[in-house]
Amino acid sequence: MKTDLSFIIVNWNTRQLLLDCIDSIHTTVTDFGYLIYVVDNGSLDDSVKAVRERFPQVIVIENQENKGFAAAVNQALGKNASTYSVLINTDTLLHKDAIRAMYSFMEQHKDAGIVGSQLEKPDGTRQHSYDNYPTLATELFNKSLLQWLFPYRYPSKKQSIVQPMEVESVIGACMMIRNEAIKNVGKLDEDYFFFLEETDWCYRMQKAGWKVYHLPEARVIHLGGQSKKMAPWQSQIEYCRSLYIFFKKNRTIVSYRVFRTFYLVKILINFIANCISNALVLFQNRKLRYRLSIYAMLLWWHLLLCPDWMGLKPGKKS
Questions:
Q1: Cα(202)–Cα(189) distance, rounded to whole angstroms?
Q2: Separation of alpha carbons 242 and 225, rounded Å
Q3: 266 near 219, Cβ under 8 Å?
Q4: Per-residue pLDDT for 316 more than 60?
Q5: What's the rounded Cα separation, in Å, for the pair 18 and 41?
Q6: Most CB contacts within 10 A, which of 133, 249, 263, 299?
Q7: What are the residue boundaries of the structural domains of the chain, listed by start?
């Protein structure tokens, strides 16, 4: 059956957030025919049971293990026949008319492959909703400094954007994708387990001639990083792994090798600096201890030659 929209929600142990997210879709999306797909990545908190009991009309795809974000999304993309797909995280709540604004924009701009929303904290404070592609400059230097020195090249959430704006990539917490564009460029790249899969998608979309837009009027509450909080150092390793994958796939071999070398140097410098900071306060500052632990695990992962068994992927040390 042809529908206007297919919402795709990937869940991993965020039961209550998932229920609230689905409820916000039902509450705010009233003018379109839509389906909701929940792809559960082996949750242990009765998420699947709760969804089936409270929202029996939702289509649930239940995985026995954590397959990663990209692979989970692709499972649902292969089943829907809608005009647009909406990827939405469990830790988001839709404002009224957010989806209507995105749908109308896509209908009026046939060159748009992806449109992203304006993410906000619960108090209405703007969050980072779009970004530049990773480059040597963005990943090796201070991004805030780049945004201050070159605001048009490196836009930030500090800028008040009131009109739709073409961007390089959007943050994937809530974005609408034209299914025609997906047929053109393919689904998400499953080499990315978690992080940067939507960035890679935007990159491929634009290479194929589709445009990517940020739509400030489509406001979405984003609680942010709830799954990441459950596995902090594993998430940082997975983000680093995704950065390496992006550079290897989308940059020259020289850029990739330079990045791998100097990113490790950057991690080492941060590790040493945090050791000194912690020593100065006799390891009494909780935030400093947390940062030190993250850099220590990142450094250890590199010293072990970046094994797959460290990070968010399920599996055991071989």
A1: 11
A2: 16
A3: no
A4: no
A5: 13
A6: 263
A7: 5-226, 231-303
Closest CA to 106 of 92, 94, 117: 117
- Token duo for residue 183: 């047929």
pLDDT at residue 315 tops 70: no
Provide the whole-model pTM. Answer: 0.92
* Distance between CA atoms of residues 305 and 220, nearest Å: 39
Residue for token digits 């792994």?
Answer: 241
| Angular region, 219: left φ>0, alpha ψ -120 to 50, beta rest | beta
31-87 confidence digits (pLDDT tens) = 889 999 999 999 999 999 999 999 999 999 999 999 999 999 999 998 888 999 999
CATH fold label, 5-226: Spore Coat Polysaccharide Biosynthesis Protein SpsA; Chain A (3.90.550)
The confidence score (pLDDT) of residue 318 equals: 41
Please tell me the distance from the alpha carbon of residue 114 to that of residue 164, in angstroms, as a whole number. 12
What are the structure tokens assigned to 209, written together?
């001639």
